[in-house]
Prior knowledge:
Elements: H1 27-31, E1 39-41, H2 45-70, H3 73-90, H4 96-102, E2 109-112, E3 118-123, E4 130-134, E5 139-152, H5 159-167, E6 175-183, E7 194-207, H6 212-236, E8 241-244, H7 247-255, H8 276-298, H9 303-321, H10 324-334, E9 338-341, E10 347-352, E11 355-363, E12 367-379, H11 387-396, E13 400-409, H12 412-419, H13 425-432, H14 441-449, E14 454-468, H15 474-498, E15 502-506, H16 509-521, E16 534-539, H17 540-546, E17 558-560, E18 581-582, E19 587-588
Helix pairs in contact: 2-3, 2-8, 2-9, 5-6, 5-17, 8-9, 11-15
Keywords: Membrane, Transmembrane, Transmembrane helix
Transmembrane segments: 48-68, 74-101, 278-297, 303-322
Amino acid sequence: MASYSKKPPEVSKRQFIIEGEGEGPSAEETAYIWRVNPSYRHVNNNIIIARIIGLGVLIIFYISTLYLLSSQLITSLIVGMVILILFLLVFNDQLVFFKILGLFSFRKIKKIDPFKNIVFGISEHSPSTVLISNKKELVHTALKLFRIEVIPESVKASTYYFIKALSEYKNMIKFTYQIIQTPYYSQISKGGSLRTDIYFCVFYTVKGLPSNNKFDRLRKKLDFLGHTLRSNFTGHFHHFKIVLLSGTALINGLRSYFFKTDSPLQDERASKKITLNFITKVIFCGGIIVFSSILLGLLKIPFLFILLIDLIVTILLVFLWWRESLYIISRKSALSKFIVVNPFYNTFFFKYRGISDTIFAHINNNLLVGIKMFSLAFTFPPSDCTKDSFIQSIMNHKISFGYTSINSPMLFSTFYDDNLKYLTEKERYNILNSHWRVQTTLDGISWLAKRAGMWRTMLNISAIEFKQIGSLDKNIILDLEEKLAFNAKILQSSFNSNFFNYRLVQLRRQKLISGIMCEILKNNEFTLTGTQLNYLVFQGSTLEYLIEVGSELKKGVTTKLPSEFNTPLHLENNIIMGNTINTEVYEEEMP
């Protein structure tokens, strides 16, 4: 097994010690292991570096080749710069800089489409599975969505053991916990009743060329993850009722605070094969290949080598800069077992000039929605929080909000390589040099189990404001923005008052779009280059407080008094009157 000890004591063999009272780390020591919780930016630098290197090599090749042929350095540099500029303009949709630049506009209302490159599909074989496919980057995520429908009175869930079970090394299940509180549609203008939706979501991601076999494996893997989460929920959330959403209910769950739709339309964008952007890229890439071949031919390079180099350039262009072309080629067969839908067919997203921290949505031409969002960026021990008081404060102000925690368990080897420097001196000593130091893979598993695992957690909190309108104009938008800004300040103040030693940052521009996509898609794996948002590392024993289903949430969900009624596993009845109900999960059992 792998060794993790950097400075093992000088012993001739592994020391097995039976820990008695006073030996080994105490519960208090287990709780306080950090100097400061690790905080990272969710970004994949590898693909960015590969693109920069690939483009740099191509431009250097053109400049050096032209110089060898013409001996004109200035001319060669000018041609190289022209090709570079054209390349960046043609593939501007792959660059974060151009995405941010695109948010600036002289127009007051700037249309945006967060889901332009996302294809949604409901599995025909399993209507409870939704496929979220990023056609531009060939990232395919499938998810199952569960909603809590009943919370029992006077029963507290075993959240710690639920987290521990999901982090177990044979499971390692990523999940999302989400609270969405919005007014009932009929009560928007009255400022009346609010409804609360509490979701648990499991998701799994694959990358590469889409195919039937790949999506079938993805669906089967997700079925296993869904069964595992539901089994653990049943075992640790006694007398709660959780429902697996499917079909239209699943689509409405993705819509989150955009209200339900009765019939999600087929996504017309998914059927479009040829666009102006596609034709432009075909012409440009063809020009690159032809120009490269001409230069190589002038250098008297053998024809077979020219073909080989052209093939390499084509592969680099496609896989680094134009992966969407592969999706277009294989899309029809890969999506043959999915019903392609568009959850946001009636929603117009836009930014308003001068307001960088709000995204607006115009729904069905009669409802205006504004969204501001905060992301957790920093915390240090003790990571105490009173989440119930936070929820109570928001509910008292009747603020519509979203609370989304996306959580991924870590292997000990990953934790060891990336986060050892953030530990206290005492905890580093325990891992590296103490009698119960971590020396084997089994030691690492045991160390994680004592803490209910180590989790990468991205926490986003949003303030939402609604207004029914007849037409969209400046005064209506600014009026909604004023109310939303006030509610966002209350939301942030309530968080600061109840989440001690935590710090939020407000999201703006491209990060705000990423945050909203995370909240709606219920995961942060929908892009190859990362969301650019922060995530932190928590012990499961701390994560427990961030995803606890508190008593205040009962105000927005059906509640029932818990009761026990055990039914035999088999009954021989000549006359069937009905079914018994399992009061642990509120489901039918034996007839």
